[in-house]
Amino acid sequence: MTNSLRPHGYQRAPLPPAREAEPTPPTPHRDTAGHQTGPPTAPTGSKPKQRDAFFDNAKYLAIVLVAMGHAWEPLTDYSRTARALYMTVYTLHMPAFILISGYFSRSFDMRPDRLKRLITGIAVPYLIFEIAYTFFKRWADDDPTYDFSLLDPWYLTWFLIALFVWRMTTPIWKIIRWPVPLSLAIATLASVSPDIGDDLDLQRVLQFLPFFVVGLHMKPEHFQKMRGRRARILALPVLACAFVFAYWAGPRMNKAWFYRRDSVQELAAAPWTGPVMTLALFGCSMVLVACFFAWVPRRRMWFTALGAGTLYGYLLHGFLAKGSRFWGWYDANPWTHEPLGEIVVTIIAATVITLLCTPPVQRLFRFAMEPKMVWAFRKDPAEQARKRTTTAA
């Protein structure tokens, strides 16, 4: 019937000739933040994509702040200055790290190669380090009854679980409207929900979620604005004001707020403080993260290459950080509680985390952090077809 309505002599226009699909180059090996870590896989004759020095610098400096914060923690009950520095750093270091992780998760989808990378780069290291931490705690803390728990991350492994959950939900955050307000609403509800419990450390997963969602929707021009001259000038007085406020608030505020691992009920706070503190900490963290990015160098530095090994440093330094508590190192060395001693502790923390991010350490622990595990996955028929086509050409 449809053809009878067409003018006499009408003929369907011929379809264009089918084009043979061009072979897709294999996805390069990448770290958990999305940077390429393996050998370049660009086609012959083309220049491989270079890592952005700015983000490697930011990751390295953020992980140094993480190590410093852990080193300052035992000093916070003796030094008001250490407590103020601790609160200031805890406001920005993990939010900065999480925001970068979100930014490099923008291209994540359920493609097989990316799911494999999610398993080998996040799930498997979580399992390995959760077991390693369990045996370490039994030995170092003289606690032979401490049980391994797959669902209850111990110490630093919560970040791997969180990154796994966040990345798996990335396709959802990319298609819904108002993702950031929704993630803030979820974080707020989590802060007043004591029944969430410790499984998978979901309190932290949900309360830190907004920073990942923000990073997921950021664009290169947003970072350009934060790296401008005006931003650098404004960053210094803002950071100074944040430290002064932290110095005043230190004795008056529970530092557990910055961990985001407990509900307001577990912190013995009024229910209304959940929404207030969630939004206030989010706002403060975003401002300080912007100040941090403003002073991150844009050019290659001596530590730029260490940005590829930050997850190594993050997980490995946990043994030293916890060991110093288990073995009473701070109590056995009273000089650490003096101003000069605090400076020495800070230098030691920065030096140790730097060494743990170096290429030799990466090569030594790559079996645990970036296992290839080719034997564990089925071969992708599409990838095999692409390889045959490339070979035949």
UniProtKB/TrEMBL annotation:
Region (Disordered): 1-49
A Pfam cross-reference name: Acyl_transf_3
Residue intervals of the Acyltransferase domain: 53-356
InterPro entries: Acyl_transf_3_dom (IPR002656), Nod_factor_acetyltransferase (IPR052734)
Membrane recorded as keyword: yes
Coiled-coil zones: none
Source organism, top-level taxon: Bacteria
Keyword Transmembrane in annotation: yes
PANTHER family given in the database record: MEMBRANE-BOUND ACYLTRANSFERASE YKRP-RELATED
Protein name, entry field: Acyltransferase 3 domain-containing protein
